[in-house]
Each structure stands twice: as C-alpha cells, then as structure tokens.
Amino acid sequence: MRTMAPSMTRSMQRVAETVAADPAGCAALTVTGLAERTGTSEATVVRTARLLGYPGYRDLRLALAGLAAQQASGAAPAVTADISVDDPLSEVVSKLAQDERQTLTDTAGALDLAQLEATVSALASARRIDVYGIGASSLVAQDLAQKLLRIGLVAHAHSDPHLAVTNAVQLRTGDVAVAITHSGRTVDVIEPLQAAFDHGATTVAITGRPDGEVTQYADHVLTTSTARESELRPAAMSSRTSQLLVIDCLFIGVAQRTYESAAPALHASYEALAHRHSPRLR
C-alpha cells in the first residue's frame, strides 16, 4: 500500500490507510461499511481495491481476513522490515528472506489469472516476441527472452530505446510485445510498446502500477507487487523478484502449451552448449 500511495487520490489513501491499520476490522465490513468508516464512497473503495491489485472489494476482504488470521495466530507479520547500517549479516539475510517471501506471496495473490492465461496464449502462438526493459527491468526482459528462445520461440529483448522503437514498428498482427516497468512511467519502455500497439501487435505490460501510463497501450496487464523499500533496500530489488515470478509463470505456461515442440528445442539448446560444461559436471 505504501508503494501504491503516490498513485492514489486522498480519498483512496484514506481507505488504504484504514485497511492497513485495522485489517481484521475492515475484513468484517461490507463495501458500504468501509466507505462510511473512511468518509468516502463505495466507488472509491472498489477503485482502491483494484489499484492494490484485487479484482474487486470481495477479494480484498478475503486477503484482509487471511492477514487478520495470521496476526491472531502469532505468525510472523507480513510486513517488510527495514535494514539498517548496524544490522549484522545474519539479520540482513533473515529480513531479506522474509521480504522476498512476502513479495512472492503478494504477487501471486494479485495476479489476474485471466490476464495471465490470455498472455500465455498470445505468446505460445506468436510469430515474433519483443521484450522491453530498462535498468533493473532489462535483466528480467533478457531472462524472459532467453527462456522463450530455448523452447523454440523467436524472442528478443531490447534495452536500447532507439533499437526498441525501430524494432517495434516492424511488428504486426500475430506478434507480441512485452513491456516490463515497475513504475509504469518509463518513457523508454512506453514508446516501443505504443509503437507495437499502433502497428497491430498484441501488447503486454508487466508493472507495479496498474494505473500507469504503460497500461494505456497494453492489451493485457500483469500486476507485480513489491515490499516496502528502505534506504539500503531500493524498490528495484523487490520489483525484480516480483517480475521474475511473473515471467517464470509465463514461461512455464507457454512451455506447457507448446510441449511437443518445446521439449526437443530445449534439449537441442542444452546439447548445443554441453561441450562448454566441465566434464566433471556432465
């Protein structure tokens, strides 16, 4: 919720702050009840739930009920712990592991399975796939492209904004373009996605901001989730973890759909590199 706060109106922030402060109490409220408690409207409550990655308020209530049950059981709280300059390395490991687990859990819970299914279908039948990412997201873009290449698909990752746009304008119906941007505002990723969209390609946005500008040019939106960043733990760390889960889901989904061709392609790629492995590791 802290991550999404800059994207919220003041009334939406009131809803989010109330939910964060009292998950158990809010889980017991209807959409009307929460609207009355926060001095907002039912529409604002629903918009807040959707911005947080839930299909509707009912789904948010279920998540709150689960959080309340976890807190009541005495389990470790599902929050991100700050890492300070004085923390021993053992504490750093523990806090990072907790944060990574929570990021993965939140991402899985927020994923729209219908959008995921549609994206898998588009990728599995694509003539060509372009993936765009800048900075930390470029590493994730490269990972997705190389995974798809190894199962026989034509996929390329672009981190150079000029090359990304010049490649995007060559895409047509039957091609797929994937933009990866945590902020949803990265111009160097938005521009090629818009070009691909304008030329008829199926477009996908993987972003932590479902209301970000990038989604205006996306046929399918896959929302990521991140833990709260601190001075020593920038958002790029948790956003990368979240993005990697999403692309792994896409890869496995596509491999399942194309198994008859994917399996031999994967074997061929392994054999092509086998001579580069140490004999003791073969």
Automatic annotation (TrEMBL):
SUPFAM superfamilies attached here?
Homeodomain-like, SIS domain
Question: Which PANTHER family does the UniProt entry name for this protein?
Answer: GLUCOKINASE, HTH-TYPE TRANSCRIPTIONAL REGULATOR HEXR-RELATED
From which organism does this entry originate? Streptomyces hoynatensis
Q: Does the keyword Transcription apply?
A: yes
Q: Which domain of life is it from?
A: Bacteria
SIS domain residues are 119-260
Every copy of the HTH rpiR-type domain together lies at 1-71
Residue ranges of the TM segments: none
Q: Give any Pfam family that matches.
A: HTH_6
Protein name, as recorded: MurR/RpiR family transcriptional regulator
Q: Which molecular-function annotations from GO does this UniProt entry contain?
A: carbohydrate derivative binding; DNA binding; DNA-binding transcription factor activity
Q: Does the keyword Ribonucleoprotein apply?
A: no
Sorted alphabetically, the Gene Ontology BP terms of this entry are: carbohydrate derivative metabolic process
> What lineage, starting at the top, does this entry show?
Bacteria, Bacillati, Actinomycetota, Actinomycetes, Kitasatosporales
User: Which controlled-vocabulary keywords does the entry list?
Assistant: DNA-binding, Transcription, Transcription regulation
